[in-house]
């Protein structure tokens, strides 16, 4: 959940090309768990949009898993089961988590990726990403139907770093047109209709 430090208009736009800053300002104990209070700023100047997010260690673990799925290996401080509310330990972990955040936000590609944008509750990021996914699917389906040479396959998850770029598997459609077998492939090809020609592609769609 994000809490803004100044009143906003009905919708706040955050330019994804602006640098992001995130500093763990403090901690608090909530229902037996340590919660990290993170101050997030978008933009170079003091006039940039500022808000706070509240995260537990497990939220960082989930973020790290998202990056691992994209084969990005980062150093996250290890889990501790006993004494994790000790003030000295909390302070040390806070410093280690700050280094972890810095390593992401100082990297141009990672700082603009969907996982960190969702983690930092960037205004409208979750809604805008979902809207983009729906819009991309609709437009791609229309284009492929009009071309009539390819069929849309499944969404290819998280192979890119941009939040507003999606990848889809696309299959080449073969036209057997009632041919009775004959040479040249098809591997037991379908008769009297259109089927999968065996050629597969990755299609990207950018907002």
UniProtKB/TrEMBL annotation:
SUPFAM superfamilies: PX domain
Molecular function (Gene Ontology), one example: phosphatidylinositol binding
InterPro entries: PX_dom, PX_dom_sf, SortingNexin/PXDomain-PKLike
GO CC annotations, alphabetized: early endosome; late endosome; plasma membrane
Coiled-coil segments: none
Major location (coarse): cytoplasm
PANTHER family: PX DOMAIN-CONTAINING PROTEIN KINASE-LIKE PROTEIN (PTHR22999:SF40), PX SERINE/THREONINE KINASE PXK (PTHR22999)
Protein name as annotated: PX domain-containing protein kinase-like protein
Species, as recorded: Cacopsylla melanoneura
Lineage: Eukaryota, Metazoa, Ecdysozoa, Arthropoda, Hexapoda
């Amino acid at each position: 959940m994000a809490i803004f430090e100044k009143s906003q208009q009905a919708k706040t736009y955050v330019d994804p090309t602006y640098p992001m800053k995130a500093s763990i300002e403090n901690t608090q104990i909530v229902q037996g768990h340590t919660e990290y209070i993170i101050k997030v700023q978008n933009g170079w100047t003091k006039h940039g949009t500022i808000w706070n997010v509240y995260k537990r260690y497990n939220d960082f673990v989930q973020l790290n898993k998202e990056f691992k799925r994209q084969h990005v290996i980062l150093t996250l401080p290890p889990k501790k089961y006993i004494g994790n509310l000790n003030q000295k330990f909390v302070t040390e972990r806070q410093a280690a988590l700050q280094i972890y955040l810095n390593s992401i936000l100082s990297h141009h590609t990672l700082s603009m990726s969907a996982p960190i944008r969702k983690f930092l509750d960037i205004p409208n990021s979750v809604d805008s990403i979902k809207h983009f996914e729906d819009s991309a699917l609709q437009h791609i389906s229309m284009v492929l139907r009009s071309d009539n040479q390819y069929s849309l396959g499944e969404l290819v998850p998280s192979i890119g770093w941009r939040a507003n770029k999606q990848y889809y598997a696309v299959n080449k459609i073969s036209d057997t047109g009632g041919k009775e077998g004959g040479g040249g492939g098809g591997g037991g090809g379908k008769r009297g209709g259109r089927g999968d020609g065996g050629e597969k592609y990755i299609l990207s769609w950018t907002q």
